[in-house]
Amino acid sequence: MKAAIIGGTGYGAIELIRILHKHPYLEIGSVVSNSQAGNSISESYPHLSEIIEQPLEKFDAKSLSEKNDVVFLATPSGVSSNLIPQLMEVGIKCIDLSGDFRLRSATEYESWYKHSPADDQYLKQATYGLSEIYPEKIKSAKLIANPGCYPTAASLGLLPILKTSLADYESIIIDAKSGVSGAGRGLSLSSHYAEINENIRAYKLGQHQHIPEIEQVLSDESDRPITITFTTHLVPMTRGIMCTTYVKLVENVTTKEVQEIYSEFYKNKSFVRVRPEGKVPATKEVLGSNFCDIGLHVDTRTNRLTIISVIDNLVKGAAGQAIQNVNLMNGWDEWTGLQDIPLYP
Amino acid sequence: MKAAIIGGTGYGAIELIRILHKHPYLEIGSVVSNSQAGNSISESYPHLSEIIEQPLEKFDAKSLSEKNDVVFLATPSGVSSNLIPQLMEVGIKCIDLSGDFRLRSATEYESWYKHSPADDQYLKQATYGLSEIYPEKIKSAKLIANPGCYPTAASLGLLPILKTSLADYESIIIDAKSGVSGAGRGLSLSSHYAEINENIRAYKLGQHQHIPEIEQVLSDESDRPITITFTTHLVPMTRGIMCTTYVKLVENVTTKEVQEIYSEFYKNKSFVRVRPEGKVPATKEVLGSNFCDIGLHVDTRTNRLTIISVIDNLVKGAAGQAIQNVNLMNGWDEWTGLQDIPLYP
Amino acid sequence: MKAAIIGGTGYGAIELIRILHKHPYLEIGSVVSNSQAGNSISESYPHLSEIIEQPLEKFDAKSLSEKNDVVFLATPSGVSSNLIPQLMEVGIKCIDLSGDFRLRSATEYESWYKHSPADDQYLKQATYGLSEIYPEKIKSAKLIANPGCYPTAASLGLLPILKTSLADYESIIIDAKSGVSGAGRGLSLSSHYAEINENIRAYKLGQHQHIPEIEQVLSDESDRPITITFTTHLVPMTRGIMCTTYVKLVENVTTKEVQEIYSEFYKNKSFVRVRPEGKVPATKEVLGSNFCDIGLHVDTRTNRLTIISVIDNLVKGAAGQAIQNVNLMNGWDEWTGLQDIPLYP
Amino acid sequence: MKAAIIGGTGYGAIELIRILHKHPYLEIGSVVSNSQAGNSISESYPHLSEIIEQPLEKFDAKSLSEKNDVVFLATPSGVSSNLIPQLMEVGIKCIDLSGDFRLRSATEYESWYKHSPADDQYLKQATYGLSEIYPEKIKSAKLIANPGCYPTAASLGLLPILKTSLADYESIIIDAKSGVSGAGRGLSLSSHYAEINENIRAYKLGQHQHIPEIEQVLSDESDRPITITFTTHLVPMTRGIMCTTYVKLVENVTTKEVQEIYSEFYKNKSFVRVRPEGKVPATKEVLGSNFCDIGLHVDTRTNRLTIISVIDNLVKGAAGQAIQNVNLMNGWDEWTGLQDIPLYP
């Protein structure tokens, strides 16, 4: 089978290429970049020299569908809402790595993203691709809205406790820290080395577009409306997200009991590793891999649960989960092409 | 006037030397390091070459008191509890940068620090040196327990709102991020470059020895017992602490109203800068300086206040505040020797 | 086939594990660490959790040879010189990643390494495992001295020009820059984060133990004694080596002509990529991969050739080349298990 | 006395502000930025909040000369060649931190900088401001061409040996490494955090515009034409330059003898520190300071001298040396406002 990648000069596409290159059943068909069409991708990314030398293509839905079996869209927000209708028209399955199809409500999208939403008829066809939670829906999906990086780390960290009756649903605070690659290869002062290095910066307080996405999945899974406090920080590293999440508990439980709830919840999941009591994961322990590692601590003085969940934002937070979803859609083992050990140190 | 520095080969001492070198009224008398006595400090720290070439001395309380007017102790925890009684005996004022005299309760100290506390009679004589909050007590103090780095950032961020009736006192969560220099120059896997670089790590969940110190000052200033949730993270940078602090509000107020409360609270304080509405500080904006910068955001959806407070852990979190305290003790302007602009970028 | 790894808690062993995990024909048999025997390796390296949980073993030559087909030694210098005789005794092939068997002269070893050399009878049996240069010898070797990280980058950069008559053999200067992981996981001030971050440091000027190794291979291949100037620098990154090498040319040639010499020299080599004229590689373009990328520039003003060669010190500079050598020894494609795209960004 | 700063939103200007703020005799009069005129500089640089709140001004030569006694130009190349004639017309002294007036030959400028040079009549009036070498000329100068960052580190490292008869003048190779701040605050892929972090990159091989500047000063001081090989590298740090310089010696001398030549050469110079035999400086040992530290090693095997010279590119390589020059011009001690200890760690 062949896959097309749209958005061929961004970090998301590059990570898709890296993983697809080692996928046994899925091979790269087309790489699309309107701005660089005709050039080799290795001109922009010399690490691909002598590996991927095929020319970048212009977007053309029909031609893509003829040469490929599935399309990954790794485009900035506001782009795939225009491209996906054309692609679905020609009958090809789409995995959208942008935020355009994640929120069910077009109004909500517009109020957080500050530009026009996708057409409602396509929004309705989208399946939210949080692989560990919605494997069945994903298997039969034609359009996957691949989750955001923060929502992946936050949801996987929170859902096991929210599915019990132990959590105070109004108490959720997610303090998130991210490396810089999440903002893409575009140029801005907030990705300038001298401004980021030896620095931590909080940004978009109360305004991050991942807030409604996290609330949507938490609300869906808790059967009640959930409102969260969510703060994002930029830390001086390239890859990695850590969510430090705080939840008030309504009963007295020990760390060990919570740890067992989580281990049980994720017992058949290839990519979620729950650390034993007394241990918490660091972001580097998942670098370059599709893992989401989770550590837990109940503070008996305040009866608050602290959840540490970490992912590589470009893998489990983007390209890796996208490929995991395609694996599910095709009935392959979900870890196909994704079983590598994290790069450490 | 002359100052002695004990603990002469640690980062705290080195930072004291850097600042004292530009202090107009206070000059370095003795630098003490038992392990390196007789050597020049520039052998361990070549950046001091041709600037500080005096030999390191052995500790001797009497001789120190004859040659100096004040003593800074920048020693690991558990050391100054033994040295300070000897120094007070010979009548010299002491500024302790370690945690040994910060907690009023010896029992509390022992349970968090896991070794023997200072003698009660000396604990009673210690003044907690949070300069902005206790300037009067500091002026007449003979022994200053200089605040910890995290407690300084956390307390300065929290106290203005706690002094109003707006805060839910049971809701306080402090998510703290620190550079690596806070752990000192000692060798451990957790300061190994390859383990820290491109990584975030949470540590000592619910067990950090700064928890009782923060609770003590918050409780004192709120006239009620305060229990907090406090999480510390190591981020890949050398200097800087950010506390992201969450407090539930019991009334509806706007960010602007809270910003005004903070501006008013700190209006005559040289070293606390409250950012205007819509702005939050980054750690690099205080690098190398004694500033504590604060930014505020009220999330009207959850009625929670998020406070961002940043310091340089080695300056306002250690050596800078120590010198600010000596300035206060001597009736000098508190910013004497400390008025430099942060190093940016 | 099964491989044993000795030195199981160092970065070299960890990287061997990462690569062997994806090798189709070679599987991890034993991981040996005398100091940690009985423990799971994931206690020291949580990124291996749920992947490698087998207990670490004590060294026992006989038992290793029964359970494994080949042994990798990723031990500090001075260790494998003792272990390898025992292993060869029981007839198992050895790949030594340390420096113990790289220098043919025991005297030379002692004078640079400052401790006892391996026994001469074993030194004589060792094959220097620079895969691109000695594939035939490697195929039939029983003991491989896997090249050092700096010697790999330096030799691959220099050999094509030295094999022509264009180079002034007395003019060679290699200015090398390395990330910190090359020094291993051991604790020292020179791997302390706060000392390395935001810093460059030159070290061991004229005394680095890789000098005689580089000179040996350059001399062998040039059929004359070569003496080099070699300077090593530590830069604030975890992985990566760049050699910037300067050679005076004895004839006038263009960059393009030199580029063609290199392209021709490496035309059938999977892992050496020669950049086109006008381009030079950066270390990150080979991160996590077995590539050695090379860029060239002839300065017509001085008639000097500048060669930029980069590798990942833990892959092509250690574990990757070791596995490439085992591939050669077994008649497998040399890129087996090593064909991954570098991790970028 | 008052100083104007032109180029008020770049890193050079920001560093001038930082140092002038602590200068006892020189105070900031005007800060000029045409693009941001009317705004407070702290909007772009919040670390200056409550310290520098004066509005940015538009450029006006006459008004600047009325309010200020000296002008610093920290503008991109090609700007000050237009502004300085206007400023000299109104009789104010100028310190140009850009490259526009450093090369005596307009033709040479055009061929390396690829745009129009300054007018010859002004080029003739410029004094090259390498403070340690030309103090007398600087004292009476009206227009200072402040040296580039690389030329400062390279020249101070090379001149003592070039002034003896020990050096082979045709053998000079300078391998230079720089932090990212040298490229300024402008946006480009080569200052994007994710592209720089965990990476070393060589750039502009044989084409860097500092080559003719270095050659000019070396030739002047050696009384013969000097041609060098010069390679620049970008390393993942914000500040700091290291030049590793190689010179063939024509006689046999020891490291100790060379060290004594250097110590003698710089014995009355406040800002050049020559390390003792066996020690070389790291860039962090001069961070934030005006020092240039130098270490030396003679390799007796090749009779080559290796010189390590380090500076902070924004201080001794730009703003600090500019202020040192104004100190000289005014008969003040050259270290006025510049005597701070480097920030370590």
UniProtKB/TrEMBL annotation, chains A, B, C, D:
Active-site residue numbers: 149
Enzyme class: oxidoreductase
GO biological process: L-arginine biosynthetic process
PROSITE patterns in the record: ARGC (PS01224)
Pathway: Amino-acid biosynthesis; L-arginine biosynthesis; N(2)-acetyl-L-ornithine from L-glutamate: step 3/4
EC number: 1.2.1.38
Described purpose of this protein according to its UniProt entry: Catalyzes the NADPH-dependent reduction of N-acetyl-5-glutamyl phosphate to yield N-acetyl-L-glutamate 5-semialdehyde.
Protein name: N-acetyl-gamma-glutamyl-phosphate reductase
Organism expressing this protein natively: Neobacillus massiliamazoniensis
